[in-house]
User: Which sequence fits this backbone?
């Protein structure tokens, strides 16, 4: 096990930063430093870059449930078969959802739609903006009728804000965050429904919209969609019921993005690690998994885990999850290791001394 962990650690550090998410980071999210002299592995960066190019340039945005995501899955499965892995395709349903676009003054704005709100008409909705403050009843006047209500997060629930806007005759609601965030906020209507579209955006985008006169919103309902996990298995010879080591990455991406960093980089490193490790003797079963529909809420990984048998769960020992390993935030020279219960175990100790 220690040799396998060392090989994986060095391979990942050749390409980027590795994160193993867990419920607790105590005793530490330990950073393992590997010197340049220890990085003599047949990891080929050009192979990884080639995969990134195919995913992000040839295919482009790989939104869950779309033809582009399925095309990516076929590419990944083909790459795994060429490595002589035992490839399985695990399909799953995507819950019905709303997706769409928002623009103003010639600029596209990322959004997240509220489950329980309504779609727009097919052609979309172009209307004046109405600044409704925090969305109290008193914040709405007769001028709100027929407009898109722009509301700041805070004080009231999202549902209360949306219902107040609907009662005032607003055609749609845009709720913007009251704190900085990397992604648009998702308005949670707590299981309630409203008859108008409700979307969430980032703080900076909402503040910019307060200076604009109108916006165009197009929100479409997506139903009966599916996604898929691609699983490539390398089994040891002559060993029954071996421990399982996972190397995983999600391959779907968000709208308006080619997804090179998030997460073409993680997917490409996973596939290159599969190539490197195919000739490394091991007494462990290694499962390389490309998860679908991660950006919709970890749907692919959740589906996979929930369909593992009790025996497989007991055999599962460690997961190397690769997400955004190609990043300019800092030099990619550290491996972050967390344990589920916050206690040291063999995997943590092996990584610590790798």
Assistant:
């Amino acid at each position: 096990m220690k040799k396998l962990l060392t090989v994986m650690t060095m391979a990942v550090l050749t390409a980027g930063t590795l994160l193993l998410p867990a419920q607790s980071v105590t005793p530490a999210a330990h950073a393992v430093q590997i010197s340049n002299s220890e990085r003599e592995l047949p990891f080929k960066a050009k192979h990884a870059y080639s995969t990134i190019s195919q995913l992000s340039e040839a295919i482009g945005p790989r939104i869950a449930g779309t033809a582009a995501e399925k095309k990516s899955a076929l590419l990944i499965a083909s790459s795994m078969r060429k490595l002589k892995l035992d490839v399985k395709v695990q399909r799953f349903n995507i819950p019905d959802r709303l997706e769409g676009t928002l623009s103003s003054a010639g600029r596209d704005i990322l959004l997240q739609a509220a489950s329980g709100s309504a779609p727009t008409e097919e052609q979309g909705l172009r209307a004046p903006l109405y600044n409704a403050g925090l969305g109290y009843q008193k914040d709405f006047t007769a001028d709100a009728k027929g407009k898109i209500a722009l509301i700041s997060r805070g004080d009231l629930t999202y549902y209360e804000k949306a219902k107040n806007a609907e009662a005032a005759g607003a055609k749609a609601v845009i709720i913007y965050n009251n704190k900085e965030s990397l992604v648009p906020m998702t308005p949670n209507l707590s299981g309630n429904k409203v008859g108008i579209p409700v979307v969430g955006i980032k703080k900076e985008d909402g503040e910019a919209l307060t200076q604009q006169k109108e916006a165009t919103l197009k929100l479409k309902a997506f139903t009966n969609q599916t996604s898929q996990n691609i699983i490539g298995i390398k089994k040891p010879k002559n060993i029954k019921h071996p421990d399982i080591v996972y190397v995983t990455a999600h391959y779907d991406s968000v709208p308006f993005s080619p997804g090179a960093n998030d997460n073409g980089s993680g997917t490409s490193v996973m596939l290159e690690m599969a190539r490197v490790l195919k000739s490394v003797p091991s007494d462990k079963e290694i499962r390389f998994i490309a998860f679908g529909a991660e950006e919709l809420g970890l749907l692919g990984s959740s589906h996979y885990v929930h369909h593992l048998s009790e025996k497989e769960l007991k055999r599962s020992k460690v997961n190397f999850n690769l997400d955004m390993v190609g990043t300019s935030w800092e030099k990619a020279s550290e491996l972050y290791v967390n344990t589920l219960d916050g206690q040291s175990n063999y995997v943590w100790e092996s990584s610590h001394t790798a």
The chain is about 30% helix and 25% strand. The first strand starts at residue 18 and ends at 19. Residues 83 and 279 are 10 Å apart (CA to CA). The chain has a mean pLDDT of 86.
